[in-house]
Amino acid sequence: MINIGVFASGRGSNFQAILNAIQEGLLPARVVLVLSNKGDAGALEIARAYSLAAVHLSQKQFPDEGSFAAAMLDVLKKHNVQIVALAGYLKKIPSNVVREYRNRILNIHPALLPSFGGAGMYGHYVHEAVIASGAKFSGATVHLVDEEYDRGLIVLQKAVAVEVCDTPETLAEKVLTIEHEIYPLALKAFAENRVTINERSVWIR
Ligand code: GRF
User: Fold this and answer.
1) Please, are residues 140 and 157 in contact by the beta-carbon 8 Å criterion?
2) pLDDT digits (tens, 9 = 90+) for 138-178
3) What architecture does CATH give domain 2-204?
4) CA geometry: angle 158, 1, 13, nearest 5 deg
5) Which residue from 16, 100, 151, 161 has the least number of CB within 10 angstroms?
6) 13 CB less than 6 Å from ligand 1?
7) Ligand 1 contact, 42 CB (< 6 A)
8) What whole-number distance in Å separates Cα of residue 149 and Cα of residue 105?
9) Would you state the pLDDT for residue 51?
């Protein structure tokens, strides 16, 4: 059993997929905290509906990154978070938090990294860029979080074909289905201690 802290800025469908996997007995974990930089995020509403700790924490509430990071670490420790799952969290994780939770922060990205990632590559921008590139496959990537956007080691990926008739909206829908499939799987591997991390790669047994 592992304690997951979910960070989300939006509606929280990946968070919901994680909860579903736990409820179905597929993921041996509990969500002990949901944190959002947005007070009105759908993810916080889901958390409250499930009586889970729901915390609104934003850099704007603090004078500098150091005090923001300290507050984030306090919340993580208070709730005994062992692994952080970013699920549509649109802010950078302060470097002190990355350091303290090195190899224990995951993110899900709606494309096949290392392509179509980085600052500004989120939401519909990703799917628009994929279609504009003429790429024949897209997909979802679960990766470790380091100091750079979308640059940490890849944990799990699944591809989906880009069809000639796809629009950013239809592609987003197909990719989201895959996200909901692979994020709980990646977390399950961490929860079951089946993950080996070295300098260049992550392997799941
Ligand atoms: C997902 O597409 C995820 O890949 C990206 O942000 C989106 C979040 O969606 N990081 P949701 O809030 O989980 O529905």
Assistant:
1) yes
2) 999 999 999 998 999 999 999 999 999 999 999 999 999 99
3) 3-Layer(aba) Sandwich (3.40)
4) 45
5) 161
6) yes
7) no
8) 13
9) 98
Distance CA 107, CA 97 (A): 14
The pLDDT value given to residue 2 = 97
Show the tokens assigned to 51.
Answer: 């009586």
**Could you give the C-alpha distances from 61 to 64, 72, 81, 182, 199, in angstroms and in order?**
9, 12, 22, 34, 36
The rounded distance, in Å, linking the Cα atoms of 32 and 30 is: 6
Residue type, 111: A
Mean pLDDT in each 10-residue stretch from start to end of the chain (205 residues)? 97 98 98 98 98 98 97 98 97 97 98 96 97 98 95 97 98 98 98 96 97
Q: How far is the CA of 113 from the centre of ligand 1 (A)?
A: 15
Residue pair 69/43 in contact (Cβ under 8 Å)? The answer is no
Q: Where are the domains of the chain?
A: 2-204
Question: Does the beta carbon of 117 sit less than 6 angstroms from any atom of ligand 1?
Answer: no
Ligand 1: atom nearest CA of 14 is 13
Q: Check residue 7 and give its pLDDT.
A: 98
pTM above 0.90, yes or no: yes
